[in-house]
Design a protein that fits this description.
Layout: H1 9-39, H2 42-102, H3 108-111, H4 116-130, H5 133-145, H6 150-167, H7 187-194
Helix pairs in contact: 2-4, 5-6
Length: about 200
């Protein structure tokens, strides 16, 4: 019988056994090394311990630096695709806001562009491939809020924008909650939102 990921149980068991054997082997080597060092003259033991510590710190710093560089390179390689997806979202939202300014917001469903569904699905397709988990979670939460409570919907939209900015590496420091959404609002609407 296979596990949920498709790995047969015997391969998983073998992996666990090999990992256990490796850990026991490392433990035996370390304990043997420590016993050998403790039998040596104190000055020689201190020098060996200092050299070992220096070597361990050097290896760890190299490994951690390489990992950090790989993660940074990956984030930089993904950034252009994320920017395309988020830019399409912003264009879409601006179009939607323009169409609602010209019409009664209650008529939002009838004022949507003809290709609304298709463009929204294209945007979501891009999200699946490029957006961070936090962006996806906030967007789902925004859709769950719906349009019945406009203030809550705007607050959630602001959270989506914040997560998109954070995902692109842009700081939100100094921006109060709800301030990003205020860019889209008229002065009267800003007063209504904050009051």
């Amino acid at each position: 019988m296979a596990s949920p990921r498709g790995t047969p149980w015997w391969q998983a068991a073998l992996g666990v056994l090999l990992l256990a054997a490796l850990l026991v082997g490392v433990w035996l080597l370390l304990s043997s090394f420590v016993r050998s060092v403790l039998r040596l003259d104190k000055e020689v033991a201190a020098a060996i311990i200092a050299a070992s510590g220096t070597l361990i710190v050097a290896v760890l710093s190299i490994v951690l630096t390489n990992r950090s560089n790989k993660l940074r390179e990956l984030a930089e390689a993904q950034r252009p695709e994320k920017m395309k997806v988020y830019a399409s979202y912003m264009e879409f939202i601006f179009e939607l806001l323009k169409s609602t300014k010209k019409k009664d917001p209650a008529d939002l469903a009838t004022s949507l562009p003809e290709d609304f569904q298709e463009r929204w699905l294209d945007f979501k397709r891009g999200l699946i491939g490029w957006a961070s988990p936090d962006v996806i979670k906030e967007l789902i939460a925004m859709e769950d809020v719906g349009t019945e409570n406009p203030q809550k919907a705007l607050t959630q939209f602001d959270r989506v924008l914040r997560e998109m900015r954070r995902d692109l590496g842009v700081s939100n420091r100094g921006l109060a909650p709800g301030q990003l959404i205020q860019v889209f609002l008229t002065p009267d609407a800003r007063k209504e939102l904050s009051g």
